[in-house]
Design brief:
With 181 residues, the protein is α+β, with helices and mostly antiparallel strands. It has three helices and eight strands, in the order H-E-E-H-H-E-E-E-E-E-E. The protein folds into two domains: 121 residues, no CATH class; 47 residues, no CATH class. It is globular. It starts with 6 loop residues before the first helix and ends in a 13-residue tail after the last strand.
Length: 181
């Protein structure tokens, strides 16, 4: 049985073959990157701090949940609060609205804008290969390291009567209907 390629392996093959990140290709979405290269950091931030909502600290949250039936429980409350910064301190906020990863160069820029940073979204990375062709790499299904059997993402900046081609690189699961095309 053919083993599925991990997204990282696919990227390495692309680089070795010269098919990835060439002159006509560029990453237009990456949910794992902390910052988008399409924002001029001197003028504009990738995250809009005006859209941030502060969450309570661990201590306040633990006091609120003590004695209640809370889905994360007192031990899981700190995980619920989100990621940590480079100093290891919890970032106790979330953003109500995220800026898109890709920023159009001009009004005539026809590059599609992808988004998957929402509940159940599983798009990891999108590479524009040229001529309205996009290579999509999905996040693996929860609890697996090699299976992807579904996809869920949003696409905007589409044009009427234009044909787009999405190559879903790692949509792989044994005995899946997607194996038939």
């Amino acid at each position: 049985m053919l083993q599925p390629l991990l997204a990282e392996e696919y990227e390495q093959i692309e680089l070795e073959n010269g098919t990835g990140q060439g002159t006509n290709s560029k990453i237009v979405y990456d949910c794992l990157d902390e910052n988008s290269p399409f924002y001029d950091k001197s003028k504009e931030s990738y995250l809009d701090e005006a859209e941030a909502i502060e969450l309570p600290t661990d201590e306040v949250l633990l006091q609120e949940v003590r004695g209640r039936s809370y889905p994360y429980g007192p031990q899981g409350a700190s995980n619920f609060l989100g990621p940590v910064n480079s100093a290891g301190k919890k970032i106790n906020r979330y953003y109500t609205k995220l800026k898109p990863y890709y920023v159009k160069d001009s009004e005539s820029d026809n590059t599609l804008i992808f988004e998957s940073r929402f509940e159940s979204g599983n798009l990891r990375r999108v590479v524009l290969m040229g001529d309205n062709t996009y290579n999509l790499i999905l996040k693996y299904d929860h609890g697996t390291t090699t299976y992807t059997q579904w996809f869920y993402f949003k696409v905007s900046n589409t044009r009427k009567d234009v044909r787009y081609k999405f190559n879903i690189i790692n949509l792989i699961k044994p005995d899946s209907s997607y194996n038939q095309g």
